[in-house]
Specification:
By secondary structure, the chain is of the alpha/beta class. Helix content is 34%, strand content 22%. It has a 6-stranded mixed β-sheet. It binds inosinic acid (IMP). Inosinic acid binds next to strand 3 and helix 3. Inosinic acid (IMP) binds next to strand 3 and helix 3.
Length: 197
């Protein structure tokens, strides 16, 4: 079934414009939760897939149109995968400068001295009848010993160094980051699925 209109479950202006630009060449109109004034769905799941589906399925059922959502986070080996699905809430008052300080301090205290980490993202597409598809993306790397700021990035980008690079995500251009990022990879799979329909 070819899709002509999708709702994107997000109030994040940056993500919304990214998805609109990506799907416009496929002739798919994207509306967002902000456009239809649908409130944020609470993320009560314990996995990225669960949270992503909670958002997309709730809205697809409520509004009767196909809906996409994403959920993502940073998983650090030395912290047994934390902050993971709690990445946004881990930062005190959503202040990621403080969140990074907390992360570096907890890693210093951990007996596991590994710096290995990865970002994960699960994009879900839910249909009003309950069917769904999941698209996963992951990028492996390591946590820097101190913040490496650049012109771009958000969240934990200043301390994430992807494998094969010696700069942080925050020091890359948007295009460069999108090519290898967890979200970029999940979205690429989603786009390939749409093209296959
Ligand atoms: P959400 O998927 O929008 O709920 O994002 C969860 C949280 O994970 C964000 O608030 C960030 O803290 C973190 N996060 C997800 N993706 C990235 C990224 O690409 N760079 C830095 N932090 C990220």
């Amino acid at each position: 079934m070819k899709l002509s209109k999708i709702l994107f479950a997000s109030h994040n202006a940056g993500k919304i414009s990214e998805i609109k630009n990506m799907l416009a060449p496929l002739g798919i109109e994207v509306v967002s939760s902000a456009d239809v004034t649908f409130p944020d769905v609470e993320e009560t799941g314990t996995t990225f897939a669960e949270n992503s589906l909670l958002k997309s399925q709730t809205i697809a059922k409520a509004l009767g149109i196909p809906c996409i959502a994403d959920d993502s986070g940073l998983c650090v080996d030395a912290l047994n995968g934390a902050p993971g699905v709690y990445s946004a809430r881990y930062a005190p008052n959503r202040d990621f400068d403080k969140g990074i300080d907390k992360l570096l301090a907890e890693m210093n205290e951990s007996s596991d001295k590994s710096r290995k980490a990865h970002f994960s993202c699960v994009v879900s597409l839910a249909y009003p009848d309950g069917r769904y598809k999941l698209f996963e993306g992951r990028v492996d790397g390591k946590i820097a010993f101190e913040k490496m700021y650049g012109d771009g990035g958000f969240g934990y980008d200043p301390v994430f160094i992807p494998d094969g690079y010696d700069c942080s995500f925050a020091q890359m251009s948007k295009e460069e980051k999108n090519k290898i990022s967890h979200r970029g990879r999940a979205m690429q799979k989603f786009k390939e699925y749409l093209i296959s329909l």
